[in-house]
C-alpha cells in the first residue's frame, strides 16, 4: 500500500472542499508550499507531526488523511 | 497535540493485545528495535510509511494508530 499516494489524494480533496489554496494550507500548517505540492502528488512520505498539522488546518483528524 | 505520544501508546497497547514482543514487531515491520522502542515511548516522529508497516503487522489500519 502506497500511503503517500493515499495521503496526497485525501489532502488534495479535503483542501479543495474547504476552498484553501495550496499556499494558504502550506502557510497555516507551517510547511513549504513545495513540500505540500509533493505531498499532494504522492511523492513524499510525511511524518505524523506534519500530518497532524495539515489535519488541524483542514479540521479533520489525522487518521482521516489515511482513509482508503 | 503530540501525535508521537498518541501513536506510541496505541502501538504499545495493540502490540500487547496481539502478543508480539518488540523484537517480533520490529522485525516484521522492517524497522530497528531501538527505533520501535523510541516510537512506543513517544519520542519519535515516524513517517506514514513506517506507520503503515507497523499497522500491517498489527492487522489494523494506520489511522487506528492515531486514535486519541
TrEMBL record, chains A, B:
Gene3D superfamilies: lambda repressor-like DNA-binding domains (1.10.260.40)
Keywords attached to this entry: DNA-binding
GO molecular function: DNA binding; DNA-binding transcription factor activity
Top-level taxon of the source organism: Bacteria
CDD domains in the record: HTH_XRE
Domain HTH cro/C1-type span(s) in chain numbering: 11-65
Keyword Lyase set for record: no
Listed Pfam families: HTH_3
Cellular component terms (Gene Ontology): cytosol
UniProt keyword DNA-binding, yes or no: yes
InterPro entries assigned: Cro/C1-type_HTH (IPR001387), Lambda_DNA-bd_dom_sf (IPR010982), TransReg_Diox_bact_type (IPR050807)
Name the record gives this protein: HTH cro/C1-type domain-containing protein
